[in-house]
Amino acid sequence: MYFISNIGVSGGAHRLWTHKSYKAKLPLRILFLICFSACAQNTICSWVKNHRMHHKYCDTNADPHTTQRGFFYGHVGWVLMKEHPEFTKKSKQLDLSDILSDPVVVFGERYFLLLQLIFGFILPTAVPIYLWNETWSRAIISQVFIRYMITLNAVWTINSIAHVWGTKPYDKNIKPSDNNYVNFLTIGEGYHNFHHVFPWDYRSSEKGNNRFNYTTSFIDICAKLGQAYDLKYPSENLIKNIILSRGDGTHSMLSEVSISESDY
């Protein structure tokens, strides 16, 4: 359920609907809606709005979970506290017509409470009880409390930890950072410095740097099955030029260059 929930957020709400980094056919979009509902993180439209605002106004008052207001605020405080007036004002100017033109998203908006209740709590609790005789108490504790809370906090580490600790191989002038710990927790969303430089890359990380990036593997499988297509990613030359011009010098490519030059 942890994997299913994160796939819904990472592959669906994030890479597909927010950034349009690839296209998905109807069956895959329906599957993403189910997986996203299992994570129970509000509606797809609300999620997309917040994340697009995060990219457009990163680490300003218009960023819904800016760490400028503190680490705790960036992690969970933004959920508990009133939205900043700057965010409220500028979010009204955000165009979400592309999202609302998708009938799957519209269906999810209309029935989101029912969908989250069924796929986020009822089925995950009932399945182990009726299929392998789990006790009610263990099923409820593991799914309603442990799995749900861990999933929420794992996704929130992108807003907090990945904006405070890590390396900046692609742009040293921004706060988002690459963090292997966050990447492990979020099944592929921890290369946050790369993502903010190339938000339209369906991999959310550089080619060959996909350790624990199960979301990319899932999308690749869907592409082979004909469900995902028009996968976007930058050229290797563009990535290399960005690393050389804006990176903080921590990219492995630079150490390989240094070694080869010293050998020469």
Indicate the topology.
Blueprint (H helix, E strand, L loop, with lengths): L1 H17 L4 E2 L1 H14 L4 H13 L14 H10 L4 H7 L5 H4 L2 H8 L1 H21 L3 H21 L23 H6 L6 H6 L16 H11 L3 E2 L6 H11 L5 H12 L1
Antiparallel strand pairs: 1-2
Description:
This protein has 264 residues and is an all-alpha fold. The chain has a domain at 2-165 and 215-234. It is 61% helix and 2% strand. The chain is built from 14 helices and two strands; from the N terminus they run H-E-H-H-H-H-H-H-H-H-H-H-H-E-H-H. It has a two-stranded antiparallel sheet with strand order 1-2. The longest helix has 21 residues, at 112-132. The N and C termini lie far apart (52 Å).
Main attributes?
single chain; 264 residues; mainly alpha; two-stranded antiparallel sheet; 14 helices; 2 strands; 2% strand; disordered C terminus
Series of secondary-structure elements, N-terminal to C-terminal: HEHHHHHHHHHHHEHH
Radius of gyration: 19 Å
Measured as a percent range, the helix fraction is 55-70%
Q: Structural class of the secondary elements?
A: mainly alpha
The beta-strand count equals: 2
If strands are numbered along the chain, what order do they take across the biggest sheet? Answer: 1-2
Number of helices: 14
Strand residue percentage = under 5%
Average predicted local confidence, pLDDT: 91
